[in-house]
């Protein structure tokens, strides 16, 4: 929070002192008179209507109506006899009445300050704006300068500043409205420069930490089948493969996917990965992008957490990470989709909570609905509907945890709901999310086959080397935290002060491909899916053949 503000102090300068004559007693000391009033010259005349030339010339006027009896000079303490100056209730010899600044006698009027000092015409204060004397006018003091109250005006709009002034330069001030507008303009300009630097940093990070999905990583089905031991003569034609299962013998085979049903195509490598995860952990693959310091959710680094850990650096694990990272880019505003709202639009309860201290949140992919359609000829068509959930995070002794309740009007929840409603459009625009759908469908199919009684060939599954990212051991498990700082800078008023309010967002999350149902739902269709020209239908080596199973 940046605080600024000020109040101008006004004062009315008191009237100038009065001048007059004083009649001394008969025993006037001529030596003293010569010192205070100066020697009397023959034929001298008074210096003005209120001054006399010498005390001795007034000795004869005992009955003068303005006579002062034994009045002492406020400056020297001597008895006043002759010309005098009265300022308030104080009397001075004319020669003792001097300027408090230059120490010269005051002969042509003066100004008395509120501290009791007397200033001559040359030393009295002047208005910083109009360069005219301040005496007799309401004044305003600001930044060491003094102004007439009427001259103290905003340099932006020209209106008189009556309450609250803000410096805009040497002797230049703004009213509250113009100050807020100028401050906001400076912050917007600063935010623009910060945005440019952040974009450059994000481009460097994307290259250094491989923060973009690489389509060339998608495993080739023909190469996978060849690695599993399927010969060229029995290899199904094409790249798209469909998995079939004989309901009687539990024989699992692979065949070219029909063009009429693209959803029947399955990536065999993703199927092998899901089988290994399910056999080892009895749970679907999971991923989480967490802060390196559990108690500092806005820290500089985030850590990739794979479940099981050996998914790190595999292609399937990279799919989980890249899809989650693309989700964060949408939420941070780095990627814009017409079907989605802006998460940082400054609306909703989330913005109000940030003003009160801010909270982080997490979003992650979940499986909404899943199942397998079984055709009459044994062809299996897995289907999986993904969505996004959101939770607010609150600090605890263990770090940040899910809040007990998340407001449905929260902008994070609104974004998650929008992504879920337009998931097909999101997947079409984001390649990693589209690949996540293929991985989720393969995971659903793997679980269905195991639940249906198909026996996995553990030896073949163990020998199969899961495709890995080319960086290998140099695969980075830590990445810079994706954050956006420029999003909401606004000037707000709190009491009598203007404050610059800034908001930034910290979002974390992951992927959970778990199917909530106890068993994968199945739908049987009494129609064949494969045509007569489907081609070879070899056994899938990931499962035991029917003869061995019997």
Automatic annotation (TrEMBL):
Tree of life domain: Eukaryota
Molecular function, one GO term: metal ion binding
Domain LIM zinc-binding: 125-185
InterPro entries named among the record's database cross-references: Znf_LIM (IPR001781)
Keywords noted in UniProt: LIM domain, Metal-binding, Repeat, Zinc
Presence of keyword Zinc: yes
Pfam families: LIM
Record bears the keyword Disulfide bond: no
SUPFAM superfamilies with a match to the protein in the record: Glucocorticoid receptor-like (DNA-binding domain)
Annotated protein name in UniProt: LIM zinc-binding domain-containing protein
Organism: Alexandrium monilatum
């Amino acid at each position: 929070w940046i605080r600024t503000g000020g109040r101008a102090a006004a004062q009315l300068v008191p009237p100038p002192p009065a001048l007059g004559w004083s009649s001394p007693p008969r025993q006037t000391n001529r030596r003293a008179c010569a010192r205070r009033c100066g020697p009397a010259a023959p034929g001298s005349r008074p210096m003005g209507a209120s001054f006399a030339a010498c005390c001795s010339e007034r000795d004869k006027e005992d009955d003068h109506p303005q006579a002062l009896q034994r009045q002492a000079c406020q400056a020297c303490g001597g008895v006043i006899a002759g010309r005098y100056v009265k300022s308030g209730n104080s009397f001075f010899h004319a020669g003792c009445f001097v300027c408090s600044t230059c120490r010269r006698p005051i002969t042509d009027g003066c100004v008395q300050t509120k501290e009791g000092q007397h200033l001559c015409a040359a030393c009295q204060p002047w208005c910083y704006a109009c360069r005219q004397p301040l005496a007799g006018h309401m004044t305003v003091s600001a930044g060491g300068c003094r102004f007439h109250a009427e001259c103290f005006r905003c340099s932006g709009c020209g209106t008189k500043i009556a309450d609250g002034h803000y410096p805009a330069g040497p002797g230049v001030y703004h009213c509250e409205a113009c100050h807020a507008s100028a401050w906001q303009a400076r912050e917007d300009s600063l935010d623009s420069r910060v945005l440019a630097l952040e974009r450059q940093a994000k481009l460097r990070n994307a290259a250094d930490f491989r923060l973009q999905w690489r389509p060339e990583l998608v495993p080739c089905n023909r190469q996978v089948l060849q690695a599993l031991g399927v010969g060229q003569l029995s290899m199904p034609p094409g790249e798209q493969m469909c998995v079939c299962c004989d309901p009687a013998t539990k024989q699992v085979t692979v065949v070219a996917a029909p063009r009429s049903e693209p959803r029947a195509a399955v990536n065999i490598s993703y199927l092998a990965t899901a089988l290994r995860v399910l056999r080892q952990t009895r749970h679907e693959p999971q991923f989480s992008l967490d802060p390196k310091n559990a108690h500092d959710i806005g820290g500089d680094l985030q850590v990739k957490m794979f479940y099981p850990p050996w998914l790190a650096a595999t292609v399937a694990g990279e799919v989980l990470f890249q899809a989650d990272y693309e989700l964060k880019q949408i939420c941070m505003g780095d990627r814009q989709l017409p079907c989605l709202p802006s998460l940082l639009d400054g609306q909703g309860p989330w913005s109000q909570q940030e003003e009160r201290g801010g909270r982080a949140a997490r979003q992650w992919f979940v499986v909404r609905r899943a199942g397998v359609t079984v055709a009459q000829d044994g062809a299996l068509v897995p289907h999986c509907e993904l969505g996004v959930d959101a939770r607010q995070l609150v600090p605890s002794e263990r770090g940040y945890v899910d809040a007990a309740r998340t407001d449905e009007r929260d902008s994070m929840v609104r974004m998650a709901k929008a992504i879920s409603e337009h998931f097909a459009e999101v997947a079409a625009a984001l390649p990693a999310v589209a690949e996540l759908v293929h991985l989720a469908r393969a995971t659903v199919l793997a679980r269905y086959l195991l639940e249906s009684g198909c026996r996995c060939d553990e030896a073949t599954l163990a020998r199969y080397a899961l495709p890995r990212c080319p960086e290998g051991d140099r695969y980075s498990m830590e990445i810079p935290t994706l954050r956006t700082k420029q999003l909401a800078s606004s000037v707000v008023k709190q009491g009598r002060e203007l404050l610059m309010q800034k908001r930034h967002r910290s979002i974390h999350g992951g992927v959970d491909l778990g199917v909530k149902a106890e068993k994968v739902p199945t739908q049987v269709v009494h129609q064949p899916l494969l045509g007569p020209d489907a081609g070879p239908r070899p056994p899938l080596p990931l499962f035991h053949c029917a003869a061995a199973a019997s």
